[in-house]
Amino acid sequence: MTGLNAPEGSPLRKQIDAASSGRASDQIQRLVASAGNRSLDSELATAERVAAVARLQLGDVKQLGQTFDTLLSPEQPAEIQIAAIEALATFDHREAAALLIARWPSLTPATRRRAGDALFSRDAWVALLLDAVEAERIPPSDVQAEHLHRFADEDTPVATRVRRLLGDSARKRGSEVFKKHCSACHKLGKDGHVVGPNLAAMQNRGAAAILVNVLDPNREVNPQYLNYIAVTKSGRKYSGLIAAETAGSITLARGEGASDDLLRVDIDELTSTGKSLMPEGLEKEIDQQMMADLLAFLAGETAGVEERSIE
Prior knowledge:
Layout: H1 11-19, H2 23-39, H3 46-55, H4 65-71, H5 78-88, H6 94-103, H7 109-119, H8 123-134, H9 145-149, H10 157-168, H11 177-181, E1 187-188, E2 191-192, H12 207-215, E3 226-232, E4 237-245, E5 249-253, E6 259-263, E7 267-276, H13 288-298
Antiparallel strand pairs: 1-2, 3-4, 3-7, 4-5, 5-6
Helix pairs in contact: 2-3, 3-5, 5-7, 6-8, 8-10
């Protein structure tokens, strides 16, 4: 499949076309056309449609815009929308990012997170997303803090805009602070996902110790919870905790139980940030009363949390 995976217009694709007298391009075009039809066929099993969506990455995103827009529409099953997002993420074209941004308002929280993963995998796409936020087409609160935090320490124009967005996004989040800010990586009771440390084990340490960990997540970071950034040979970026590794692959885990399995032969760079996956600056996003509610919840004193008013 090496030849089929060569992007349109790439040197490898041109070599293949020259060697095959153009037959390879004809075959790929027929394959993509068939995949487009099958991906939209609601009578097919979802698994078959997902496989067809994956084959669309062999085509030209400019010509597949309408197909992808339909695949991202609300009436499509979540599995189809996610497959479309993953396929779009493989294109190195602004048109792919534009499709995700245009459909952002209709995406569910789960698919919106996957779209955010895709948009933040390429620096050029981050700028397009920030354009949409600054134009008030996407609310700042829709952008995951963990995505923004990755750029906050960089000395680039994009990082400057990210820092401004981080400052502007400080606002009230309501009494469901844990669900909105912590459950993506932490599990407590029935809520959340097991990615970061078990918060139940921290309850006996008291509110003061919890507050320190919330405000300064990088003060004491267990090595198993360090964040890593992997850059593939194709230029895509992945980040997360190293959840598993074998002789031939590594698995990076991130929020809401999502993960990426990367073959070592495809990795160009793998670097620890030396920091926790948990972003700094949570205190900028919630006021003092909300912080008090969060600490009470984490300490197990959840009774009456929702009834408290913010004065």
